[in-house]
Amino acid sequence: MYSLIKDKKSPYYQLLYTQESGKRTTISTHCKIKSDALKFLTLFKDKLIETTKPTVITLKDFNAQYKEFSIMKHSKNYLRSYKSAYKIFLTEFSEDTVMSKLNVTDLERFFLQRFSESKFGAHLNYRTLKAALEKAVEWNYISYNPLKKIKMPKLPQKNVLIISQEDFQSILAHEPNSTFIRIYEFARGTGMRLSEILNLTWGQIEFANNVITVMNSDSFTTKSKKERVIPISNKVNEVLQSVRPNLVWIDIMNQYVFSNKGLMFNPEYISKRFKKSVRKAEVNNSYHFHHLRSSFASDLIAKGVSIFLVQKLLGHSSVAVTERNYAHLQTDSLKEAIYLL
After folding, report:
1. Which residues contact 238 (CB under 8 A, 6 or more apart)?
2. Is residue 160 part of a domain?
3. Do 293 and 163 form a contact (C-beta atoms < 8 A)?
4. What residues are paired with 156 via a beta bridge?
5. Closest CA to 27 of 44, 43, 39, 50
6. Assign residue 191 a region: left if phi > 0, alpha if psi is -120 to 50, beta otherwise?
7. Cβ atoms of 294 and 188 closer than 8 Å
8. Is residue 111 part of a domain?
9. 85 pLDDT more than 60
10. Which of 141, 223, 271, 292 could form a disulfide with 187 if both were Cys (CB 3.0 to 4.6 A apart)?
11. What are phi and psi of 205, to 5 degrees?
């Protein structure tokens, strides 16, 4: 939609038009006479159509390009999520579909149907594909991201699972390998993600200042893309001292803190190993390695640590994420405090 307008603020006609994304934009024609402004409008429309015309590409070709990009840019977990989301996406859309033909109506119907089948799965698929389509806009395959116009239904509140100290000790008792015991204890004592733990090198640990710096490197990027500092507790210090190399003259700064003969552990292997110990211990079968992180947060909140400090230690992108997951624990702590009055 295009229209010429004129106001008292400028002697020139202004061109008001609506972009495909729905955003209304105004630019000056630098023309005082309407006939000249109309000529500007014609030239502007032709130029806009030419410059914004998307490159024709099918979902199949985009998928191949985006996977190659994701291998270099994103984590293995993200790539796995994308492949899963794309596979589900193909239950509704053909690989021969031209990307510029994707529309809000069809996509909204697809995601609402997906939500009725799997609420949390639908939200994960939506976020993953939304990021992919944003890259498609950047690559000029589509003029705007249609998923930005779709508002997904809210997810039901789901409290995070906490591993009790009793259950945790039972899990440790059913793990015969001391290296994995140390990894589990370290995770519970720092709240670090498994990928952060396995990429941790001795150069990130400052025993003099008693802190661990979770940082980005050429081969690893934190989930939030930000670095953070985690103080070393007495228990975590015990774990680190137990796995610290004895030969101090060897340069260990770039060596992994937890490794398989110097090589990085496969995160899936660690996760499955932890799950195996959970089953042997006959505790809650829903426990996963990631719940060691939520248990760390729970321990802090139970001791009265503010939700803002918990957010910093966990490395959440915002305090809203932390509140969404742990607000109920904070409420329980407040109740206990009131009962002491």
Report:
1. none
2. no
3. no
4. none
5. 44
6. left
7. no
8. yes
9. yes
10. 292
11. -110, 125
Residue with tokens 């989301």: 85
Query: Which amino acid is it at 148?
Result: K
4's tokens: 């010429």
Residue 249: is its pLDDT beyond 60? no
Range of the domain at 6: 2-52
pLDDT digits (tens, 9 = 90+) for 171-199: 999 999 999 999 999 999 999 999 999 99
Place of tokens 């990429």: 199
Q: State the Cα–Cα distance between residues 200 and 212, nearest whole angstrom.
A: 9
Q: Is 58 helix (H, G, I), strand (E, B) or coil?
A: strand
Q: In sequence order, what are the residues at sequence separation of 6 or more whose Cβ sits closer than 8 angstroms to the Cβ of residue 17?
A: 1, 2, 3, 24, 25
What pLDDT sits at residue 290?
94
Residues 196 and 313 in one domain: yes
C-alpha–C-alpha distance, residues 140 and 138, integer Å: 5
HEC per residue, 91-129? CCCCCCCEHHHCCHHHHHHHHHHHHHHCHHHHHHHHHHH
